[in-house]
Amino acid sequence: MDVDLLAPATQEDWYPTYQYLRDESPVYRIPGTDDYVVSRYDDIMHVLRHQRTFPAGSSKRRSLAAQAVYDRGGWERMTPLGTNPPVHRHYRALVDHFFTGAGLARWRPVIERFIDEQFSSFERDGEVEWSSQYAVPLPVRVITHMLGLPEADIPKLKQWSAAWILPFVRPLQPDEDVWVAEQVVEMYGYLAEQIAEKRRSPGEDIITHLTAAELTGEDELRPLTDQEIITIVDHLFVGGNETTTFAMTSALWVLLREPGLYERLGADPSLVPLFVEEVLRLESPTQGLWRAVAEDTEIAGTPIPKGSSVHLRYASGNRDERMFPEPTAVRLDRANSRRHLAFTLGEHQCPGADLSRLEQVLTLQEVLRRLPELRLDPERNDFTHVPMFTMRALKQLHLRFTPP
Q1: pTM of the model
Q2: Mean pLDDT, range 24-28, rounded to an integer
Q3: What domains does the chain contain, in order, with CATH numbers?
């Protein structure tokens, strides 16, 4: 049986397809291609553990016309935070401390202030379109502040961010591929100006830190190039807002569609972090990502030739009953919830995973405190998703509540 992974009906409700793939074809070759979809949790983990055989990225290349756009701009489309060992850990060491432990705690007062401001903008209305009025602006304000970029530039930053992720959403037509390249080159030029400004007037932000940082290699210690800083920053900016937006919207949908869940969390807010993990598992904002194949190998007995690509379907692994009993249920007592793959696992785990978790937990705590009698608007929601191959996002989510 062939599976149409690009069909709108499939993308609206991936989960029957995932169940079929896990049961009948756990390593599925997309017809007419050298692309393989891996859908079981243990097989995904096998790929993640063997990075030499399955390096980050895809065997695919952008079009010559799109590459020409980068060449004319004098830029290279590189992803330092997506490189492979041993180089990868040296780049990650430059930024990871901003997003974990004490480094993340430093940003918490700012995050709480932004959360308060976003709630204050609608809490007296008795209704809100959650995605556009909260889930989009909150994460982008946070990552913009952390990077040290002007908040007034958020509209164009979001435009570039949307272009950046488009190749992960669906296959692009040639003219779309060129448009994405043009948008990314425009973003690179903007970031180059911001880097120059940080060198003139340093701040207490991530970009300033990167302008002064030195990269530790096997035989060298050197400053980062502007190209490296720019592509680290674009990775952090996009990763720091898009997926958190999607997860925050799904969280409210799950919270209010499951009978008694809103009341249960309201009575015991200490359960909120566990609920966040279950939402990330059930409605993973990143459905999957590509890996290249560097040598002839096999996965679960299926031969995979060198030069192929494998698509690790994290969202399918997150509903694999072999790993997560009762996989479709929200279980706040699930012992292995944090073993989900929504942020992937291992060396390439999303650098902003803990930041996203913190934003989601603080947001839900405010929801429970400030939006009494919260409910889904029965007249304005159809709960449909944006058609996307790699990501999952509700188009909108209308809520009603009792204003103060």
Answers
A1: 0.94
A2: 97
A3: 8-400 (1.10.630.10)
